[in-house]
Amino acid sequence: MQSIVVMDDIDHRILRALSRDGRMSNLQLAETVGLSPSACLRRVAALERAGVIRGYRVVLDRGALGVGFTAYVTVGLNSHTKASQEAFERAMDRAPEVVECHNITGAVEYLLRVEAADLSAYKSFHTDVLGTLPQVNAITSYVVMGSPKDDRA
Question: What is the pTM of this model?
Answer without folding.
Answer: 0.79
